[in-house]
Amino acid sequence: LPQALIIGVKKGGTRALLEAIRAHPDVRAVGTEPHFFDRNYEKGLEWYRNVMPKTLDGQITMEKTPSYFVTNEAPRRIHSMAKDTKLIVVVRNPVTRAISDYTQTLSKKPEIPTFEVLAFKNRTLGLIDASWSAIRIGIYALHLENWLQYFPLSQILFVSGERLITDPAGEMAKVQDFLGLKRIVTEKHFYFNKTKGFPCLKKPEDSSAPRCLGKSKGRTHPKIDPDVIHRLRKFYKPFNVMFYQMTGQDFQWEQEESDK
Fold first, then answer.
1. Angle 55-59-63 (CA atoms, 0-180°, nearest 5)?
2. Where, by residue number, is the active site (predicted)?
3. How many domains would you assign to the chain?
4. Which of 197, 175, 177 is nearest to 88 (CA)?
């Protein structure tokens, strides 16, 4: 069974993190998302164990399913599997995350309403529709409260999706330390891909082409009305501040905004 899980968040950078940590010789991870603690729980732990890759002594088994972070039953279920499981959450500016989430849905269902329409309960009053999953997922403080009932903060690592792009080696150093691994994945594993706009993994032995994330990553976001973005920022700000206080980490999403 896995000793560490990447539990969230959707469109935060979980795939990039998983690919990077899999470059470590002491990590074995499932490539696909098992969705055990949200959709397949009734299949039982034996089923889950069989989904896991085979490991040697001293190797860590991992999986990632970003929807765990927002699944109410997940903390209790994971805790009952193993209360010392290490949890990793990749977070990014909730406004960008929401737009990225919408962009992904749009690519599958081009007929859906515009982002602006879905984001508001009432556009004239500026009431944000917090029940829309693209927006709800980004209320990180709300979801984290649920996890903290079962797990101490010391067992949860928060990775910045932004820094995973600007300084992948720095974020990976924290991940490896948190997992108790030697720092083997370093800057020499990454190079910046200008067309995609984010780092790609080099193959350690230069044996084959570098691994970039697939076509579904780095999609161009639709242009969103600046007023809508402004209202969303205002909506998220108190939750972001609460999240910084809960985690003891400032992700500087507000600063980014004043730079723009």
1. 75
2. 11 (for sulfotransferase activity)
3. 1
4. 175
Other CB atoms within a 10 A radius of the CB of residue 88 amount to 23
11 is an annotated ligand-binding site residue: yes
32 appears as a binding residue in the annotation: no
Q: Mind listing the pLDDT tens digit for each residue in 33-77?
A: 999 999 999 999 999 999 999 999 999 999 999 999 999 999 999
Annotated ligand binding at 218? The verdict is yes
Collect all residues with Cβ–Cβ distance below 8 Å to 83 and sequence separation of at least 6.
150, 151
**Longest pairwise C-alpha distance within the chain:** 60
Provide, rounded to the nearest whole percent, the portion of the chain with pLDDT above 70: 92
Residue 214 labeled ligand binder:
no
Q: What is the residue whose two structure tokens read 């989430």? A: 101
Count how many residues are written for the chain.
260
Residue 130 counted as domain residue: yes
- Could you tell me the CATH number of the domain that includes residue 12? 3.40.50.300
**What is residue 40's predicted lDDT score, i.e. its pLDDT?**
98
Task: Determine, yes or no, domain membership for 22.
Answer: yes
| Positions marked catalytic | 11
Q: How far is CA 25 from CA 34, 38, 52, 71, 85, in A?
A: 22, 29, 16, 31, 20
